[in-house]
Write a structure and sequence with these properties.
Two copies of one chain form a homodimer. By secondary structure, chain A is α/β, with parallel strands linked by helices. Chain A folds into two domains: 175 residues, Alpha/beta knot (3-Layer(aba) Sandwich), CATH 3.40.1280; 61 residues, Helicase, Ruva Protein, domain 3. Chain A contains twelve helices and seven strands. The first copy, chain A, has a seven-stranded parallel sheet. In chain A, strand 1, helix 2 and strand 2 form a beta-alpha-beta unit. The first copy, chain A, is globular, with a radius of gyration of 19 Å. Chains A and B meet through helix 2, strand 5, helix 8, helix 10 and helix 11 of A and helix 2, helix 8, helix 9, helix 10 and helix 11 of B. Chains A, B: Keywords: Cytoplasm, Methyltransferase, S-adenosyl-L-methionine, Transferase, tRNA processing. Chains A, B: This is tRNA (cytidine/uridine-2'-O-)-methyltransferase TrmJ. Chains A, B: Its main location: cytoplasm. Chains A, B: Belongs to the class IV-like SAM-binding methyltransferase superfamily. RNA methyltransferase TrmH family. Chains A, B: Pfam families: SpoU_methylase.
């Protein structure tokens, strides 16, 4: 697959950005590296002239930006999502370096649409948002001054995407992805599995929604690491449905 | 030599910058990656409040910036200088990639002070300025939109400097991640899970031992990829046991 096509499959998702100027800077950063799919989850102020100014020649990305109210909507259809996080979260996917993680992202892009998910300038991503992603990345910074601007973070990771897309021979990337013979599950399919699992655990009494504890995040962490295929989601949901038929819950057989 | 010391030996030289905001963005970008030595060759407007605003917590780099009237003065004492250029110049040093060139820069930094030289936002470096450098670097960009902001260019190259400086140090992964705090499941614990899963699937009728097909290998492949922890095996077996109690199979509650 051509590097340009792989890059076109990467969406950059900005969750709750506060400053329209940063949205513009992100668009410009993306376009310089050949990325084009910008998605905004409840931006505070958009569209905005300041965004257009900072985007300079990348206003087309702003005009085509998809705006959603939840991260789940922004990720619908994506086969792999990477959370950009300044720190390791409890139960979150293990954080990798930009280089190795963008290589994984590009490998996944051979299978479908993938996403790079950035949090708000001040508070970053919530734990719930991080847990919707299959991997996490931290940009190494000076521990005494780690205040990377949002546009700058988009620039560094878009640059690593371009380096990964053009690095090495295409055959090598295809070798990396051969273990996955079947199509990967999409974000919404995986969320469907989690919903089904939660329903069954609630029915059996294993899970108490009034006292959720850390059970659901732990299961997300486990299955997030596995990078589920569509076929596997279907198998797991088949097992869940079969237990429901026995207990009288769920769809009728 | 410690990575922090090597990074402190790199000066970023901005030649004739037009916009004070870009000087501030460059300072912030440098400081996030552990660089601190900013030099300005005949800046159009400096100091300036816009530079301070964009620098945020990196105003100390602005306060300490050395201002000169020629590039030669800014490079005095440097043992190696890299010109940042969007194109190969006639007679200029061959342009390299950021990764390989920043590795050369860091190697040279073990010998003394080194410099990264950026041109004016619109016209770049003059041929005479490029020829004062021993190497040149081009940041790969989208050929249809190569308009990298000056601050963004400083960010990408400062990031590569940091990556090169720490490349020989403790693996970044170890610095970044607290991998898996929980102990991994042992072989027999995982086999116990597979046995339990098979029993439940057989009880519900989802799995027919007389016609096993590829169901069990597929589940092994899935959970094998996940590299299960002991705690996770216990959770999964707890879910399985809870469905059995409902159906009247399994151990008595």
């Amino acid at each position: 697959m051509k590097p340009e096509v792989l890059l076109s499959r990467i969406s950059v998702v900005l969750c709750r950005p506060s400053h329209p100027g940063n949205i513009g800077a992100a668009a410009r950063a993306m376009k310089t590296m050949g990325l084009s799919d910008l998605r905004l989850v409840t931006p505070k102020q958009f569209p905005d002239p300041e965004a257009d100014t900072r985007a300079t020649g990348a206003v087309d990305l702003l005009a085509n930006a998809k705006i959603t109210t939840t991260l789940a909507d922004a990720l619908a259809g994506s086969v792999f999502a990477v959370a950009v996080s300044a720190r390791q979260r409890d139960l979150g996917p293990a954080v990798g370096t930009p280089r190795e993680t963008m290589a994984r992202l590009l490998a996944a892009a051979t299978q479908g649409t993938v996403a790079l998910v950035f949090g708000n300038e001040t508070v970053g991503l919530s734990n719930e948002e991080v847990l919707q992603c299959q991997a996490a990345v931290t940009i190494p910074t000076n521990p005494d001054f780690s205040s990377l601007n949002l546009g700058a973070a988009v620039q560094v990771l878009s640059y690593e995407c371009r380096m990964a897309a053009f690095a090495g021979a295409a055959p090598l990337r295809e070798q990396l992805t051969t273990p996955f013979t079947a199509p990967p599950a999409t974000h919404d399919e995986i969320e469907g599995l989690y919903g089904h699992l939660e329903a069954v655990m609630t029915e059996t009494g294993f899970f108490n929604p009034a006292q959720p504890g850390r059970l659901l995040p732990k299961l997300r962490r486990l299955f997030g690491r596995a990078e589920l295929e569509r076929d596997e989601v279907n198998i797991l949901r088949g097992i869940l449905a079969s237990t429901q038929q026995r207990t009288g819950h769920g769809r009728k057989g």
